[in-house]
Amino acid sequence: MDDRVEQRDLPTGTVTFLRTDIEGSMAMARSLGSGWDALNARQGGLIREAIDGHGGTLVRTEGDAIFAAFSDAGAAVAAAIEAQRLIGDHPWPAEATVRVRIGLHTGQAHRAGDDYGGFEVNRVARIAARAPRISSGQCA
Questions:
Q1: Which of 10, 13, 40, 68 has its CA 20 to 30 A from that of 120?
Q2: Beta strand 133-135 pairing with 99-108
Q3: pLDDT tens, 72-129?
Q4: Distance between CA 73 and CA 32 in Å, rounded?
Q5: Do residues 44 and 23 make contact, with C-beta atoms less than 8 angstroms apart?
């Protein structure tokens, strides 16, 4: 029996990481109750659409956050812009103002099993936390 985990085909070398986060997601989840799950799934679907459309690889999701990798920095920027437009143009429920921060960072990829680890991953998370937010009706 083989106990090795099959590793995904993640970009290596110089990689551009993209990370997203919904601003105020905990308060929004409390206020929307059972409606939160559908809203979170929809925003995740829009972001994944942009990632897939620009050749990115979804690495993982963490609650409402998405972490992806791109072998091409220009494609990562294009995916971030498209995600912002998709989120800004989407008809969200009136009781929810969806504001998503998107951070990008390019650096040397450090594989950690079926994921990435190291400083570059931490840096993109910090960039996303400080990124300007895009909400309904806005786009970059």
A1: 40
A2: antiparallel
A3: 999 999 999 999 999 999 999 888 889 899 999 998 888 888 888 877 777 777 777 7
A4: 36
A5: no
Residue 46 gets the label, from left (phi > 0), alpha (psi -120 to 50) or beta, of alpha
Query: Whole-angstrom Cα distance, residue 117 to residue 44?
Result: 22
- What is d(CA 122, CA 86) in angstroms, rounded to the nearest whole number? 26
For residue 20, list its beta bridge partners.
Answer: 66, 102
Q: What is the DSSP letter of 132?
A: P
Nearest-angstrom CA–CA distance, 74 and 134: 20
Amino acid code (one letter) for 68: A
The label of the residue with tokens 């929810």 reads 96
Spatial separation of the C-alpha atoms in residues 22 and 102, rounded to whole Å? 9
Strands of 57-62's sheet in order across? 57-62, 65-70, 14-22, 99-108, 133-135
Which among 63, 81, 96 has a CA at the least distance from the CA of 18?
Answer: 81
Closest to 85 measured CA to CA, from 22, 139, 19, 41:
139
DSSP one-letter code for 111:
B
**Could you give the CA distance from residue 128 to residue 113 in angstroms, rounded to a whole number?**
24
